[in-house]
Amino acid sequence: MPTLGVHGVEHRASLSHPAMDSSFLRMHTLISGLGDLNWSLNGWTAFTLVAEILSLLTIPSVLLQRRGQSLSALAWILCLIGLPFFGVLLWWGLGRSHLKRKRRKRRTARLTVTKGFVTLRPPGVEDEGGAALFPALRFPEEDAGGIFPAVKGNRARLLVDGAQTYTALQEMILSARHHAHLLFYIWQKDATGRYFRDLLAERARAGVQVRVLLDAMGAGGAAGRFMDPLREAGGRVAVFMPTRYLRRSLSLNFRNHRKIAVVDGRFGYTGGLNIGDEYMGEWRDMGLRLAGPAVSQLQEVFLDDWYFATGEACADPAYFEGAAAPPGGAEGVAATCAMLAGGPDTIDNPTLDTFFMGITMSSERVWITTPYLAPSPDVLTALRTASYRGVDVRLLVPRRSDSRLVQLAGRSFYPALLRAGVRVYEYLPAVLHGKTWIFDREHLAIGSANLDNRSFKLNFEITCFLRSAEAAAEMAALYERDLAHAEEILFDPFERRGTWTQIKESAANLLGPLL
Question: Which of 152, 177, 340 lies closest to 266, judged by CA?
């Protein structure tokens, strides 16, 4: 006759089997146990569930935005799965680009304002020998907007650290009679920041047109009331791509990392230094002062960014007349120069492509100074294979860094580089922040771009490529002077570092595509 089991489950004794009875009892015990856990939907459970669902829903966005970048996509997916809540915030705040919309807006702005620039460029100064670094560069039209022709007839002066750089900037600003244009990623609200703010305000009161463009993330604090004395004096202050926390994009990527100063179209500055007290002793950096036709290229980059930020078009001959030839008695050595203004508004960032070509086309030496070492696989391969070809490849990086995470990630690349014969040095006295490249005997580059994914893919950067045997020799002498204050990393001792250290470096390396 039928019998009723636990919780009214019906079964027939005649069909009973020891294995079936055992399985039934285990299932019953499991169900009863789950019931005893009292699964109440408390706040933490709901939070975790929502975070995991949002992470899963975010994965398609990662796959679409990182098409063709498998390592970057995988890193972001692992981040979403491992840290669902923070991963979602990081992706929508730092990772997602809305690149098509931004690229269209930037390209439209560039086409609008740069049409007038072409006719204002100094005539007859292009170097017939080709680009400052390569004999020919044929980038796609959409990527070629920030790539300028090589121009001869310039005077270039290397600037070491804050003392030389700020003295040069001070002299430039004091000489201004028509305009002073400055663009900086960081402008600190310290003694140095106040000094240059007040110096510009003084020139503005004297009738000089002063325009200052600051990145919203790097210098957003200084762009507010701190700059009111300059505004009250008649100067203009604008912010590049303000962050909008309640909008669709947090705009934490696509920062304007450039450092530019142009005075009267006659003098220009670019390099790695921002405006702040730290560059007066704590940090080691390099800048470049220019006079001559290349200054008009810096002017174009500034005015393009200014138009994008403010809508004010400044295609006026008055901003370009001073660049026709170097002023009499201009300091520095003779150089052929070409500016490269790369950024994420292009499909393939020409900054990465140009440095890649510089490495692969060099036949004698590639000496690089970079504060942040997070090379993409193709750049890492270019460095290694250049060493295989017998090129003297050296990397100078900081022992003390302002970003511990990036430094750990950078050290994870040392073994592959050292095995290939690349020589790696860590600078000891100060925080190394310079971004310089020496290719062979007469080519060099100075600018704002680091050897990392952020500079090559995510930020707007400016680099001046120079062809000058004198400038390259001077830079090489400075490089060797810095090596005298650095420790060379050797493969065997480096491999004997602690296991925990290696684990931390490898973990940081996983974030390389995100850095």
Answer: 177
